[in-house]
Specification:
The structure holds two protein chains of two kinds.
Chain A (H helix, E strand, L loop, with lengths): L2 E3 L4 E5 L4 E3 L2 E3 L5 E8 L6 E7 L7 E2 L2 E6 L4 E6 L8 E9 L7 E2 L3 E6 L1
Parallel strand pairs in A: 2-12
Antiparallel strand pairs in A: 1-4, 3-9, 5-6, 5-10, 7-8, 8-9, 10-11, 10-12
Chain B lengths: L4 E3 L2 E4 L5 E6 L6 E8 L3 E9 L2 E5 L6 E5 L5 E5 L8 E8 L16 E2 L3 E5 L1
């Protein structure tokens, strides 16, 4: 079974600064997907970024980027130039590559951007 | 294109009752998954449906069931409600689930609905 661990329950950062959220996972699979989802106070789950395990290049989406270390089973999210709208719960999630639409989520990190 | 819709958005029930939640996926999406979110247990996978068939099931008791219709809309049912069933129930749809033959291209980005907040009194 896969597990996802987020060791930072809460974080806060000043607006415009950079923040990194940590995530580690455990799996015996070689091919899989990793995701970061954002859940603002509205509770709407929004995909922030995704990484295919077979790709060595780290994924980036505008101000969001990941540091994917497959051997270390680490998948951190970096938010640059943080904005007030980034305030949300952030969940790291794992999905197997084949035959399974199931997302396994971490416990989340509550991120607060301070004006 | 309209997003994933869930009805109702809020629901209050009493112990012992049953409840049915509905999820309409994005047009063209064939896979629908359900998740339960609680403060104590976090986000947990309930089940996933594709082509009216349950393909995956999480570790929940038989009181939790679901189904999918030919138009990909899905419902989940919880019978004999318990206080611990109070949660946000999230539905997610994705474009193409792996076919039963196992050789379809997988587009697995899941789009979530706004959720149904169930309170059991």
């Amino acid at each position: 079974a896969q597990t996802v661990t987020q060791s930072q329950p809460e974080m806060s950062v000043q607006e415009a600064e950079t923040v990194t959220l940590s995530c580690t996972y455990d799996t015996s699979e070689n091919n899989y997907y990793l995701f970061w989802y954002k859940q603002p106070p509205s509770r709407q789950m929004i995909l922030v970024i995704r990484q295919e395990a077979y790709k060595q290049q780290n994924a980036t989406e505008n101000r969001f980027s990941v540091n994917f270390q497959k051997a270390a089973k680490s998948f951190s999210l970096k938010i640059s130039d943080s904005q007030l709208g980034d305030t949300a719960m952030y969940f790291c999630a794992f999905m197997m590559f084949f035959g399974n639409e199931k997302l396994t989520f971490g416990t989340g990190t509550r991120l607060t951007i301070i004006p | 294109k309209a997003g994933v819709t869930q009805t109702p958005r809020y629901l209050i029930k009493t112990r012992g009752q049953q409840v049915t939640l509905s999820c309409s996926p994005i047009s063209g999406h064939r896979s629908v998954s359900w998740y339960q979110q609680t403060p104590g247990q976090g986000l947990q996978f309930l089940f996933e449906y594709f082509s009216e068939t349950q393909r995956n099931k999480g570790n929940f008791p038989g009181r939790f069931s679901g189904r999918q219709f030919s138009n990909s809309r899905s419902e989940m049912n919880v019978s004999t409600l318990e206080l611990g069933d109070s949660a946000l129930y999230l539905c997610a749809s994705s474009l193409v689930g792996r076919g039963l033959a196992g050789d379809s291209v997988l587009d697995n980005e899941q789009f979530f609905g706004p959720g149904t907040r169930l309170t059991v009194l």
